[in-house]
Specification:
CATH class of chain A: Alpha Beta
Radius of gyration of chain B: 28 Å
Helix content of chain B: 40-55%
CATH topology of the largest domain in chain B: Rossmann fold
Shape of chain A: globular
CATH topology of chain A: Nucleotidyltransferase, domain 5
Helix content of chain A: 25-40%
Oligomer: heterodimer
Strand order of the largest sheet of chain B: 2-1-5-4-3
Number of strands of chain B: 18
Radius of gyration of chain A: 14 Å
CATH class of the largest domain in chain B: Alpha Beta
Largest interface: A-B, 19 and 18 residues
Number of helices of chain B: 23
Strand content of chain B: 15-25%
CATH superfamily of chain A: Dinitrogenase iron-molybdenum cofactor biosynthesis domain
Distance between the termini of chain B: 98 Å
């Protein structure tokens, strides 16, 4: 199973607001192992444009400090989950997210 | 009640506690930071606006709690700490506890003790009430993100709620850059379909086969690269609205396919045998004269009447010149929010020049001019020097703009502006081909590739025509007699 996560960046830290992050770190995991990662420049702060771009490269989860609630339905329509309240070092936030994911998959194992 | 003497004359609280009490009693949000931008104090109003408690905020980087539009691009506190200069009432927005934007005005100052830099203080107040009152006072200066107070725009604002209430197809006509997409978006947002998707497809940018798969979708195996089913925009927009932009650019073959979809209310994905029922409101937009195309048999009459149940025509910006100052103000605020730059106004002479210009690229061109000015402006006010040479005309022309702004000249009094127009513009306007080329180039930011595509000609042909009509910067016209 492939999972792609985008962490909104502010330097090496998690961006406090998704719409003002100049770039995101996209990390993809195949069967729990990191397959590749790339820093993607986002440019224009227009949120729908940013969401379409990330959906286009397969991102399914966005991690950031905060995200304008008005655009959550747009993210959902594109099949993306947004996790807010993240802060500190981006690597640390990614590791925290993966630990949480591993714990939840252990708690609800998929069938056959 | 204890009735003790101590309760009647309490011991005054220590200094720090007193400061905290005072800060918590004021209506402004206040926080202080050290030199590394870590929060050292956070008052009650700051807790209310940001949704973070003092306990959570203190010790963290200020941008983690404050989440303002300027934190990452043009932080006011950083500027104050670097320059030593305080800033007053910088208008920004923050996300509140519910993750919704709240407009605030920010002021900053340096904190020193005995000449030693301790950090900075940021004071901010919620101005959402002031903003909403200001919008009301502006007298319908804007409606659903469409800005304008001219009679034409007021008529449009009156019409939109009624148009939105029906499910009838709408055809929005107007030159490039007049805001056709904004009008379509307003119709969707005002309608009962507002919580469902609103999708836009640029019909002019795609060849028939691609347009068909985009709009109607395809099933796995429909063609070589179709490895999985893909729903089309009509299916994705089910329950909502779809904007078919540049509808005048679709081929006659595709016109017929679209007509069938509109008549039947169902689409058939490529490779599929069963049609799919869809409930989508269709909005179309074009910068072409569809009636003329129908007369020339280049556009199907039956499709024309099917999509033009409610026609809306947008006029060029030069015909509603009185809206220019409102639009300038709107774009300056928008750009200030986007970039975080503390630019708040436009100098009177610059505004006069902006008001006098003809805008062949319409509102989009005006927006681009403001964006460009923001790149060049490092102060708090856009000056004449931040505007491109093409919009700066003669002194008389600028004067005409000043008089127009002062209400001493009617907006329709174009002859005066025309007379004071720079020679190159007169030549371009007198020559209809040159004028058309200029409009198309301006609408595409003078990108020759995009302009050539929009006109359906090659880049080399476009370049040749530009040279012939004197539209190449620094090159004299080759065409004689123009």
């Amino acid at each position: 199973m492939t999972t792609c996560v985008a962490i909104a960046l502010f330097g090496e830290e998690v961006s406090p607001r998704f719409c003002y992050a100049e770039s995101v770190l996209v990390a993809c995991f195949v069967n729990g192992q990191e397959a590749w990662r790339q820093v993607v420049s986002l440019g224009d702060p227009w949120i729908p444009g940013r969401l379409s771009r990330l959906a286009g490269i397969g991102v399914r989860t966005i991690l950031c400090g905060a995200f304008n609630r008005a655009y959550l339905p747009a993210a959902e329509r594109l099949g993306m989950a947004v996790i807010t309240g993240m802060s500190g070092n981006a690597e640390g936030a990614l590791a925290k997210f993966r630990r949480r994911q591993a714990a939840s998959s252990r708690a609800s194992p998929s069938r056959g | 009640m204890t009735g003790t003497r101590q309760a009647e004359s309490p011991v005054p609280p220590p200094h720090a506690a007193l400061h905290s009490l005072i800060l918590d009693s004021i209506r402004e949000g206040v926080f202080t930071v050290d030199k590394d931008f870590r929060v050292t104090s956070f008052n009650a109003e700051a807790e209310r606006i940001t949704g973070f408690s003092r306990r959570e905020a203190v010790g963290r980087k200020c941008y983690e709690d404050f989440r303002a539009s300027i934190c990452q691009r043009g932080c006011a506190l950083r500027e104050t700490l670097e320059t030593g200069r305080p800033l007053r009432d910088v208008r920004v927005d923050v996300l509140d506890a519910k993750m919704l934007p709240v407009p605030i005005a920010v002021s900053t100052a340096v904190l020193r003790s005995g000449g030693r830099l301790l950090g900075g203080v940021e004071i901010f107040r919620d101005i959402s009430e002031i903003e909403s009152l200001r919008n009301e006072l502006k007298g319908q200066g804007s409606f659903e993100n469409i800005v304008g107070a001219s009679p034409a725009m007021k008529r449009l604002f009156q019409l939109l709620p009624d148009v939105a209430a029906s499910d009838a197809p709408v055809l929005i006509e107007g030159p490039s850059g007049t805001g056709k997409e904004l009008v379509a978006s307003a119709i969707h947002n005002l309608s009962a379909r507002r919580d469902k998707p609103f999708l836009r497809v640029n019909c002019g940018a795609l060849p028939d086969s691609l347009l068909e798969s985009e709009l109607f979708g395809y099933l796995r195996g429909a063609f070589t690269d179709a490895r999985r089913d893909k729903p089309g925009h009509f299916v994705l927009a089910d329950g909502g609205s779809i904007l078919l932009d540049e509808i005048g650019d679709i081929t006659p073959a595709f016109q017929l396919k679209l007509l069938r979809v509109l008549q039947e209310g169902e689409v058939q994905p490529l490779g599929g045998s069963r049609p799919v029922k869809v409930d989508v409101r269709v909005l179309c937009a074009t910068n072409r004269d569809l009636a003329a195309m129908v007369a020339e048999r280049r556009f199907r009459q039956d499709l024309y009447y099917r999509i033009r149940v409610v026609p809306i025509t947008l006029i060029p910006l030069e015909k509603r010149r009185e809206d220019i100052p409102l639009l300038v103000d709107h774009f300056v605020r928008l750009q200030a929010l986007k970039t975080g730059k503390p630019i708040r106004e436009v100098a009177p002479r610059a505004m006069a020049a902006l008001t006098a210009y003809d805008y062949p690229g319409n509102v989009r061109e005006l927006q681009n001019l403001i964006e460009r000015a923001f790149v060049l402006c490092h102060g708090q006010r856009i000056e004449l020097g931040h505007l491109p040479a093409e919009i700066l005309g003669s002194k008389e022309r600028e004067q005409a703009g000043v008089e127009l702004l002062a209400g001493r000249r009617k907006p329709s009094e174009r002859a005066v502006l025309q007379a004071a127009r720079p020679v190159s513009q007169v030549r371009a306007s007198a020559d209809p081909v040159a004028q058309k080329l200029r409009e198309a180039l301006a609408a595409h930011g003078w990108s020759r590739t995009a302009t050539a595509r929009s006109l359906g000609i090659g880049r080399n042909t476009l370049w040749r025509r530009m040279r012939e009509h004197g539209l190449v910067p620094g090159k004299p016209s080759k065409k004689r007699g123009t």
